[in-house]
UniProtKB/TrEMBL annotation:
Source organism per UniProt: Xyrichtys novacula (Pearly razorfish)
Annotated Gene Ontology cellular component terms: extracellular space
A Gene Ontology BP annotation from the UniProt entry: positive regulation of cell population proliferation
Taxonomic path: Eukaryota, Metazoa, Chordata, Craniata, Vertebrata
Segment forming the signal sequence: 1-26
Name of the protein this chain belongs to: Interleukin-34
Alphabetically ordered keywords of this record: Signal
Pfam families: IL34
GO terms assigned for molecular function: macrophage colony-stimulating factor receptor binding
Length: 218
């Protein structure tokens, strides 16, 4: 049997101390890294399944708040002073749950991208389960900052009550690109080691990356 060593107690004590200090930048719990990487792996096939299997320029109707990009995150951080990462992470789950649902809804039963999308959604749900488990329940009852609550309410509104001006059209590939880039920004502790120099929350970084890819393609 394994006896807890002195150093384990010491570590526990240090962690306890750490928890007493209010932490502005909530860390991504380590337990989330495996499901995050699994989802990240699935997302690497998004071009094949979300572009090639769809008609050219195919778009689906989404709420404008569902166009949730890295720049949306920067904007919210500017708008709400001291915005907790955890709040943004919760919003990320809320937004992308809706996005995945909308993509699945347009896919007929036998569409070649359907199994892929279903798998993606199931991995997303697994991740959400780990996320919820990794935090005390009170965290999810905490009041949200007004702007965020507002966004949240609009996302969960009955579709009939959404004003027509709030709808946007986006391709499934673009929506999954957003999901992927914002995931790497909001849970960056789990993605940091692979590319130490990359700041996944830096919008200009991403543009550069895109340009490079375009050049490689031509
Ligand atoms: C995430 O996926 C990309 C490919 O889409 C890969 O380059 C990167 O190494 C992956 N990151 C992790 C942490 O698995
Ligand atoms: C797709 O969109 C691009 C840019 O808006 C346009 O130039 C192109 O003609 C469109 N292709 C089709 C097949 O509709």
């Amino acid at each position: 049997m394994v006896q807890p060593s002195n150093s384990a107690y010491l570590l526990g004590g240090l962690l306890g101390l750490f928890l007493l200090v209010p932490v502005q930048m909530a860390q991504t719990p380590a337990s989330m890294c495996t499901p995050l990487k699994t989802l990240n792996d699935s997302l690497s096939q998004r071009r094949r399944y979300m572009k090639h299997n769809f008609p050219i320029n195919y778009t689906i109707k989404v709420h404008h708040n569902e166009i949730f990009k890295v720049s949306s995150i920067s904007k919210m951080r500017l708008l709400v002073e001291g915005l907790d990462e955890l709040v943004l992470q919760r919003l990320w789950f809320q937004v992308n749950q809706g996005v995945l649902k909308k993509i699945i809804r347009v896919l007929p039963e036998r569409h070649p991208s359907r199994p892929y999308t279903a798998r993606l959604e199931s991995r997303f749900r697994d991740l959400e389960g780990v996320f919820v488990q990794a935090h005390p329940a009170e965290v999810f009852q905490q009041e949200l900052p007004e702007t965020i609550q507002d966004t949240w309410d609009r996302l969960t509104e009955e579709p009939e009550r959404v004003p027509p001006s709030s709808w946007r059209y986006a391709s499934p590939k673009t929506l999954l690109d957003n999901l992927c880039y914002t995931m790497r920004c909001l849970f960056r502790e789990c993605f940091a080691s692979t590319e130490a120099q990359q700041d996944y929350c830096d919008v200009s970084h991403q543009r550069k990356g895109k340009k490079k890819r375009l050049k490689l393609k031509s």
